[in-house]
TrEMBL record, chain A:
<dbReference type="Pfam" id="PF13591">
    <property type="entry name" value="MerR_2"/>
</dbReference>
<feature type="coiled-coil region">
    <location>
        <begin position="70"/>
        <end position="97"/>
    </location>
</feature>
<keyword id="KW-0175">Coiled coil</keyword>
<protein>
    <submittedName>
        <fullName>MerR family transcriptional regulator</fullName>
    </submittedName>
</protein>
Automatic annotation (TrEMBL), chain B:
<dbReference type="InterPro" id="IPR008971">
    <property type="entry name" value="HSP40/DnaJ_pept-bd"/>
</dbReference>
<dbReference type="InterPro" id="IPR002939">
    <property type="entry name" value="DnaJ_C"/>
</dbReference>
<dbReference type="Pfam" id="PF01556">
    <property type="entry name" value="DnaJ_C"/>
</dbReference>
<dbReference type="InterPro" id="IPR036869">
    <property type="entry name" value="J_dom_sf"/>
</dbReference>
<keyword id="KW-0677">Repeat</keyword>
<dbReference type="GO" id="GO:0005737">
    <property type="term" value="C:cytoplasm"/>
</dbReference>
<feature type="domain" description="J">
    <location>
        <begin position="5"/>
        <end position="70"/>
    </location>
</feature>
<dbReference type="InterPro" id="IPR018253">
    <property type="entry name" value="DnaJ_domain_CS"/>
</dbReference>
<keyword id="KW-0479">Metal-binding</keyword>
Amino acid sequence: METYLIPVEDICAYHHVEINFIRSLEDFGLIHTTIKKQSVFLPIDELSKLEQYLRLAQDLEINLEGIHAVSHLLNQVQDLQDKITFLQNELNYYKQLNQH
Amino acid sequence: MDYIDYYKILDLKKDASTEDIKKAYRKLARKHHPDLNPNNEEANKKFQQINEANEVLSDPEKRKKYDKYGKDWQHADQLDAQEQQRRQYQSQGGGYGGNSYSGGFGGEDFSDFFSSMFGGGGGRSSKNSPFKGQDYNADLQLNLLDAYTTHKQTLTVNGKQVRITIPAGVENGQKIKLPGYGAPGVNNGPPGDLFIKFNITDDPKFKRKGNDIYIQEEVDLYTAVLGGEKIVETLNGKVKLKIPEGTQPDTTLRLKGKGFPVYKKDNQFGDLYIKWQVKIPTNLNTEQKELFEKLSKF
């Protein structure tokens, strides 16, 4: 399946953000862009992540190092939430066995 | 509609300076920002209040008006004046109803109190910027058999019909994202996304643990002792199983690939575990008792 790509220039104009901010996010490994015909594009799957980082920077004045740390912690929170769901399902299984 | 004390929300005194307001807002926003509190409705709500308080108190015009009329907003004369001001405000294009956060609230989520005083919604720094629409969240109840097969279902989300494909093997509590099915964007921004959380109800017979299914089947004492066959219902039809002689109670049999489909992996299934529950006969007649007594002497 072909990934839909958005020109990074458009994103910068749309969100009033410098291209350097996006480059720095990529340097930190927080987003991934692609180059096609000498233009930089962002895969659409990455857009919500980028917008989240923009909000963290603009709403909360968090710098890139902070965004990197927050992103890492949010991923950990997500992993823990997934683990909780998995364990809740397991616990439910044993509860059902006891009721049997 | 209740009066909202914006100073209290930001934990400020009435004579707070612009710098104090900014500091208080930043401090509370860092704590309650929806991006830092995913799936936390309470934090979302709190952030809306903080945002609204900041919207009013950080704008000298709005703050002045709030300080003047805020507590007595129900007074008729003042309400009339406010209404006049509101109309004037809207005609100047100030009634922006957008939002700059796509994850949890829209301009329409500003309180009625705010709307009655200032008209329309809020709007933060970039009043005409395009923003992604609000994300929607929906819960979908499925039974275990629904989750066993890939199927289509039509949902009604915010009055719109959305037809979705539910892949086989979804887990209880799992969320899927449908990009673009959220609220329309603001100022030509892209639409938000729809997040669907699956709640899978327990099945009285089939117990699921990951991709494996566990069931308990009764087998009578004679078949357990002498061996035989039994037809067992699985999630995809009936199977005839051989019961070897001398089968012990709670013996578990594994049927490979007869469990639950693995999410988004074609033709991959977990296993089915069948635990034999040997049923001891009750209410024996005299003849049966005598036969058991005879057996016990062997």
